[in-house]
Amino acid sequence: MPEQRSGDEVEIELPTHCPSCGTALVVKGTGEELWCENLQCPAQAVRRLIHWASRHAADMEGVGTTWIEKLADDRVLERPSDFYAVTAERLIEYERMGETSAAAFVAGIDRSRGLGLRRALIGLAIPMASEGVAKRLCLAGFEAIEQIMEQSAEQLEAIRDVGPKVAESIAAYFARPEVREEIAALRAAGVDLDVRDEDRPIEVADAAETPLKGATVVVTGAFADPDSGAKVARPAVVRLLEQAGATSASSVSRSTTYLIAGADVGAAKTDKAARLGVEVIDQAQAWSWLVDAGVR
Prior knowledge:
By secondary structure, this protein is an alpha/beta fold. It has helices spanning 42-53, 65-73, 88-91, 99-111, 116-123, 131-139, 145-149, 153-157, 164-174, 177-188, 234-243, 267-276, 283-293, and strands at 26-28, 33-35, 216-220, 223-224, 231-232, 247-249, 258-261, 279-282. A four-stranded parallel beta sheet has the order 6-3-7-8, sandwiched between helices. The protein has a two-stranded antiparallel sheet with strand order 1-2. α1 (42-53) crosses α2 (65-73) and α5 (116-123) packs antiparallel against α6. The longest helix is centred in the middle third of the chain and has 13 residues, at 99-111. The protein starts with 25 loop residues before the first strand and ends with a helix. The mean pLDDT is 89.
């Protein structure tokens, strides 16, 4: 506040180079944020590895942050493709890493090889490219990450909800030789970088009229088949809702029609829905609507 100033204030000088690696900073985004584009910058390399292993990206169950940091310190992990060369034999050399834990660590990595295009785009942490952008790129009809790599900024901007700054950022990211080398290394490690069926464009069925048609929905929590009780992955639930004519979103906003809540939902999203006047629908009602729509 102006009245709280003493007159001793010093004007802030914005940095021109990254304080961690010394790389010249670039201005990006509508807020003119300063970015370090060095993918091996010490300040962000470990965070990139942790992000790749996270639930929204490769979903490496059993691969904890502490061990990622330790392996990064020892230069075992420097980039995402390095995960797929880690062996149980190498891990058990560490104190407090037993055979069972090492086996679970490697098994989590092995399972993540099937992540697919959308999750790979999320895991790469492309500047300004959100999870929603990753989904839009899959819905645009691209079959493999290499196809996206060859797109110009102008071509990417033509995709729905991909603005010029985001398009420029994606094109610049994939033009970098080290990124292209990393994509090739991931392919060589057997990592799936192709679009998965659940992320392909959906042809909306001739669904019967239900409250889902034309609605904007956010899906949260755990879901189970109402007949068998078997767990149903959230992307599969979202796909069914979209087949019934709904549009999915990742977060609750004033434009959300329904928050569809499965089991074990935290209070954050339901409280926000309540504040914004968004109706919360339980999964029993959602399954019932899907049956009525004829997509299940």
